[in-house]
Structure prediction request, 154 residues.
Amino acid sequence: MTLSGKTDIGILLVLADQEFVRELREYVTGQGFDDQGRSDGFVLRTLHDGPTTITRLAERLEITKQGAGQIADDMERRGYVERLPDPSDARARLLHLTDRGRAALSAARRFHHSYERRLRKRLGDDAVDALRNVLTEMAGEAQVSTPHFRALMF
Prediction:
């Protein structure tokens, strides 16, 4: 798993992601959100721009409508989202963020900004900018620029 005696970059990426997620979960737990699910962040960010249907949520998350419905049911049970009638279609219901959902999203955003500030303080702006460029290259500019992922950025 080494190239020229160095740790495999794929392993380093996995480990870095795991550590980032561990720190994020620790932070949001400390903010009172100890019941966050794996998909919650994506749903919260998706709903930040406004309410949406389960069908649209499924498209954004690239999962089935059934899967999106299960996630929404669970998040509704935990108080992060609510379903309200669609004012333009009496048969449809829209998924909205609750106050708790907005607060959880704000907590996650604070962590993301703090994490990057800490990296910049430790490594310097040039290193963090270079890391961002490398990750964008690895993900592919076209992938990063898709409406799906652009909606998740803040």
